[in-house]
Amino acid sequence: MKEIALITGAAGGLGRSVANRLADSGWQLILVSRDGDRLAQAYGGEHLQVAADCSTVVGARQIIEVAKAHELLPTALAHCVGNIRLGALHRMTEADFNDCLSANLISAFHTLAAFVAGLREARCGGAAVLVSSAAARIGTPNHEAVAAAKAGVEGLVRGAAATYAAAGIRINAVAPGIMETPAAAAILATVSGREAAARQYPLPGIGSPDELAELIVWLLSQHAARVTGQVWSIDGGFSSIRPLIK
Ligand SMILES: NC(=O)c1ccc[n+]([C@@H]2O[C@H](COP(=O)([O-])OP(=O)(O)OC[C@H]3O[C@@H](n4cnc5c(N)ncnc54)[C@H](OP(=O)(O)O)[C@@H]3O)[C@@H](O)[C@H]2O)c1
Q1: pLDDT band at 186 (very low <50, low <70, confident <90, very high)
Q2: Band of pLDDT at residue 13, cut at 50, 70 and 90
Q3: Which atom of ligand 1 is closest in space to residue 212's alpha carbon?
């Protein structure tokens, strides 16, 4: 029987990389976006495609209900929803801050809750991976909003991992530096912006969603059966070491 994975933000840069890898490994996929047309463009008629907003309780539960109606129970979740809202704290508008919290933290909370509820109802174990950011791990100028939201994601991961470990449900996060995806397009749009971004990292460069997807797929697999409650950095050393300045 095929294993079943739920991927949110599936029309985005990271979501597509994760979906391609899991599909290549024979997983059956449930793909979520707020915009069904974006999913159809990206995947044609492949996989179960669900148009829902997982930053609401109703939307998150709807995903599991649609899956159930197709007799599918996802035992893996890659929650690839989020955005990057940059700006100094005193300049951040209420609307931008709320959007940042909603996309990054509130969506993670409701989606994980609905996923776990489905597993518990079926008395089944599973694994989830949420996406944090290097900015939650080390103070980075103008990243206050996203740092606050992603730090919340990391707290959610540890709390939920503790609650559900006994039920065989593993919950981890990954924390990337900047990656070549639509979320970072504005930052990487100019040559100078791209070079400045790349130079920040002890291992200089811009991350790729494919390398992060590899880590996510591993965390969802049985190879990581003893791993839970962890946040895995993949940020060129940005959050833990200082480069040698010559
Ligand atoms: N790219 C980077 O440099 C970077 C760095 C650190 C962390 N991250 C994190 O990596 C994850 C994947 O992002 P990505 O880089 O693949 O960006 P992306 O291509 O923009 O994909 C993110 C997806 O999130 C969904 N989304 C955005 N705002 C939402 C909201 N308010 N409610 C519900 N869904 C929303 C969008 O899906 P629909 O519009 O299709 O619904 C979008 O396609 C995110 O958690 C992001 O914060 C990215």
Answers
A1: very high
A2: very high
A3: 10
Instruction: Judge whether 112 and 130 are in contact, CB under 8 Å.
Output: yes
- Judge if the beta carbon of residue 131 lies within 6 A of ligand 1: yes
- Ligand 1 touching residue 145 (CB < 6 A): no
Tens digit of pLDDT for each residue in 137-160? 999 999 999 999 999 999 999 999
- Ligand 1 center to 142 CA (angstroms): 18
- Whole-angstrom Cα distance, residue 239 to residue 246? 20
Query: Which atom of ligand 1 is least distant from the CA of 180?
Result: 1
Residue nearest to atom 24 of ligand 1 (CA): 81
Residue boundaries of the structural domains of the chain:
4-234
Indicate the top mutation candidate among 32, 81, 111, 153 to test ligand 1's pocket, ranked by most ligand atoms within 8 A of CB: 81
**Residue 80 alpha carbon to ligand 1 centre in Å:** 6
- Rounded to an integer, what distance in angstroms lies between the CA atom of residue 104 and that of residue 80? 9
Confidence (pLDDT) at 244 = 80
Q: What is the mean pLDDT of residues 111-132?
A: 98
CATH 3.10.180.10 assigned to domain 4-234? The reply is: no
Q: Which of 58, 83, 105, 154 to mutate to test the pocket of ligand 1 (most atoms within 8 A of CB)?
A: 83
